Amino acid sequence: MRARENPWLLSVVIRAACLICIGIAVFFGVPILVYRGELPRIGKGIIGVLAFIIPLTLATRWIFHTLSFHYPRQLVRSLTTAFVFSAAISQMIGMPVAMLTGSYAERLLGTRFALLGVFLGLVLTITCLCFLACVLARSVTCREMRLADDHS
Length: 152
Known about the structure:
This protein is mainly α. The chain has one domain (about 5-150). It is about 90% helix and about 0% strand. It has 4 helices and no strands. Helix 1 (about 5-35) runs antiparallel to helix 2, helix 1 (about 5-35) packs across helix 4 and helix 3 (about 75-110) runs antiparallel to helix 4. It starts with 5 loop residues before the first helix and ends with a helix. The relative contact order is 0.14. The mean pLDDT is about 85.
């Protein structure tokens, strides 16, 4: 696998990160709009878990199918595993970063741009960490595949 494939892999990871962020926004936004903040404590916990698991599952399934058209199966499994673990960690890291970028956007551009700043901060955090993990997994797996071919 060559370095010129990095832009394509980056675009796939960006789209998967956007899927995760849209899913988080839907799972947090819809109940808040419907119940207007009057949600019981257990309901908030359930929504938080669902907002974490379901978008990550959907994005992982999507990235697996997208990569399977371009890479061999062993490499697809490696990249998907790297994506799912790094996405879970980057979601936890991305929430405080997203609040920072949202507050900066609100401070610099006005209150209308605060949510856009939060969304972009979360997408940027997830994209950077997942892309680095995927590139590392791709290089390790390709090296292992080359070594296996040389010994055969």
